[in-house]
Amino acid sequence: MKILADESVDFPVVKLLRCKNFTIDYITEIKPGISDDQVINLAKQKERILLTADKDFGELIYRLNKVSAGIILYRLPGFNNKQKARLILKILQDYDTDLPGSFTVITKKQVRIKKISS
Asked: Where on the phi/psi map is residue 68: left (φ > 0), alpha (ψ -120 to 50), or beta?
């Protein structure tokens, strides 16, 4: 699975996913400071699922009808970086075929996956 990690993603999450052989580009390393609109366009152009902790991407998808290869938004207050990384890894492994083309929200209690209309 190919992923583009937004700047809001903690580096330990990126590091663990790379160690588990995920192909991951990290905005912080390749184009720091670009707008959310540019991030989502880059993810689509590179055909990568966007991993983020930034709720603004929901508005870009649903209100402004931006096209996306998929978005994974995690909302995990109270989790340390190691816990976040482990949970995100588990979701990526357990739901790998459901994530492309979907808007996925990961919280402490649930995973919601909704296909994005094109």
From this structure: beta
Torsion sign across C-alpha atoms 107, 3, 17, 89: positive
Q: How far is CA 54 from CA 12, 20, 35, 91, in A?
A: 17, 24, 12, 18
The pLDDT value given to residue 98: 96
- Taking only the tens place, the pLDDT of each residue in 40-87 is 999 999 999 999 999 988 888 877 777 789 999 999 999 999 999 999
End-to-end CA distance of the chain: 21
pTM of the model: 0.94
Domain extent for 11: 2-115
Structural domain count, the chain: 1
Evaluate whether 19 touches 39 at the Cβ level (below 8 Å): no
Write the CATH number for 102: 3.40.50
